[in-house]
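Form 7-S
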Amino acid sequence: MKVLALILSVILFAGCSSPAPVEPVAVKPTPAPTPAPDAAPGKDPGDTTVKTELPRGKPGSLLSKIDRARLSAQVQQAPKAINIKQRCSFRNETGYNGSTLVEIANNEVKALSTQIAVPLHGGSCSFEGSGFRQVARAPSIELRHNDGCTVRIWTQGKQLTISYSKCSARCSNPEVFKYVWPVLIDQPSGKCD
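Output:
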């Protein structure tokens, strides 16, 4: 829906700056047809998914030039559930190093533990899963601790990202947290950085 709203905003903005007036259009949600009782296996007969139909524009207008099939596919594409069980470690040329253990099943965090050492700035940080509670499952996973530390986990392509914010209390020296970067895990290879 965000993609559709963005595209409609661009269309309306472009229409306001073009010499020819463009009439505003309303997007009308239409309910998906109810499948017949003998529908394909695996389909939920009670599925009430709302499909959005983009109206046709006047010939020559920006709205008429939109690839409706591609836009429809993007709007209706649901994010995939995160399922991963991985243990990895990383080190770069400056000595920055760490290790991560993450286990997520269907966007529910089962285990999470990260240790990061920042030798150039004299300290380390430890992010253990105990004490965190999961407060969001989608579009990204979010965990919070009573001390204010927040963990966000999301995927982009085949890469899983684990980021930490407001977690300086979990470091040997609170100043070290300024040098902690998100942990990136390449899911096909299992390598992290």
